[in-house]
Structure formats: structure tokens, C-alpha cells
């Protein structure tokens, strides 16, 4: 009887974990190809600022969602992209 209770509790916990992970927000990859550049900036935990130009606000939001990092944007292209910007944008 005890084994059955432990198994039932474990099964319920596993089910709830799976349901919870599937219910999380998904990143919507549907973006237009409009050219309306935005400059995205992210200050890393080590204090270094990452700065990348995104073709439009939708692509910026998609990147922010996929990375799960607190990027901020401003209108227009960045004065200069950081060295690893291409790798950041492409993944």
C-alpha cells in the first residue's frame, strides 16, 4: 500500500511538471521582413554591454524571448555592434 501511495504521488508530481513546462510562454517566430532597425542592448552579469542592431522590433522581441535575458531597445541602428553580435543574433 505504501509503495502504491509513493508511486501515485511521484506520478502526479511528474504529470504536473510536464504540464507546467508545456504551458510556458512560447516565442512567436513570425516576423515580417520590414526594415525598421532597433538597437538592442544587454548588460551582462560581468558588466560588459552587448549591443546589436536588429532589422526590426519584431526580430528584437524574438531574440529577447529566445535568450530569456533583459535586453532593452531604442529606435535606429546601434552606433557600433559588439564583436560577437552576429553570433548572438544567429544563435
Automatic annotation (TrEMBL):
Keywords of the record? Signal
Keyword Signal assigned: yes
* Residues annotated as signal peptide: 1-21
InterPro entries per the UniProt record, alphabetical = Kazal_dom, Kazal_dom_sf
Key word Glycosyltransferase present: no
Which Gene3D superfamilies does the annotation name?
A: 3.30.60.30
Q: What is this protein called?
A: Kazal-like domain-containing protein
| All copies of domain Kazal-like, residue ranges | 21-80
